[in-house]
Amino acid sequence: MTKKALCIMSGGMDSTLVAYIMRSRGYEIIALHFNYGQRTVSKELEAYRTVCSDLGVSEKYEIDLDFFKTIGASALTDHSIAVPTTGIEEGIPVTYVPFRNGIFLSIATAIAEKEGCSSIAIGVVEEDSSGYPDCRDAFIQAFQDTANLGTKDTTSITIEMPLVHLQKSQIVLESLKLHVPLHLTWSCYQSEDKACGVCDSCRLRLRGFEFAGENDPISYV
Length: 221
Hints:
5 strands; globular
């Protein structure tokens, strides 16, 4: 029987690589994307769809969530809060969306149970991320236990996070090794035309390519 992996995919470099890793491990990919009121919602959705096409995904979900925009509290969903562009921010940054990955994983668990998936795959990166608490290895491990306690006895789900301890440069190199279409991905927090190059996400991506000695194929301002 074909094993299935539900891949949470933003359209960004990290989650796209995770989907290609899971395919390389022999999984049938079921894709899941969230439109949660983020600034680059249209561009991320476009990237997600084109990546799914490249992957040959036949079963995909696009979930709309108004919840995060309603509560605000993040520069990604509240336009009254500026996206930081200086690269100097102490503590948890204002781009952190409260418990986003916990909520994403809750929805993913329901879909994975319905689809008979043995794995949920997520592109969290702990060591080289922006310090988001819901990207930590310990959190994902704890959530896996919770998910299996809260589902049917016949359901057994492993949450895969193959990038969690990688640096961005390693992610770039692994993507190139697996022929991941990085030109289709989008990481910028605030622009949907050309990437701004100065938000935290752009800085991390550009630094990853620089340290890997490679050129980023997307366009920047």
